[in-house]
Design goal:
- There is one protein chain.
- The chain has a single domain, classed as Arc Repressor Mutant, subunit A, CATH 1.10.10.
- It has four helices and no strands.
- Helix 2 packs across helix 4.
- Belongs to the CDC6/cdc18 family.
């Protein structure tokens, strides 16, 4: 399956039975399959997927999309039923820096 997605993503064929999945979505699917196959987990963070996706795009000379558009495109892939996105709330605490040199 991965080879067929990859071949259809990188070759330009004028066949009528060609899948109508956009190129960016195909690249995301291929990148995800490679990460899952190479890794030990079937779950990949969106940041790691975007980083690997950017490397794939640069390797094949395709313009990569930014992270916000990438996240939206991943939700489109999810709407096709190919993947499931798990949303987690990450609490970011503010970083306070104290200047201890002024304490007497």
């Amino acid at each position: 399956m991965m080879a067929s997605v990859e071949s259809s993503a990188f070759c330009s064929a004028n066949s009528d039975d060609m899948d109508d999945t956009p190129l960016q979505q195909k690249l995301i699917i291929v990148t995800l399959l490679v990460l899952v196959k190479m890794g030990k987990s079937k779950q990949v963070t969106l940041g790691k997927l975007h980083q690997s996706y950017s490397k794939v795009c640069s390797k094949y000379g395709v313009t990569a999309i930014d992270f916000d558009e990438f996240a939206h495109t991943c939700s489109l892939v999810e709407s096709r039923g190919i993947v499931t996105l798990k949303k987690r709330v990450i609490l970011v605490l503010p970083l306070y820096v104290y200047d201890l040199t002024s304490v007497k």
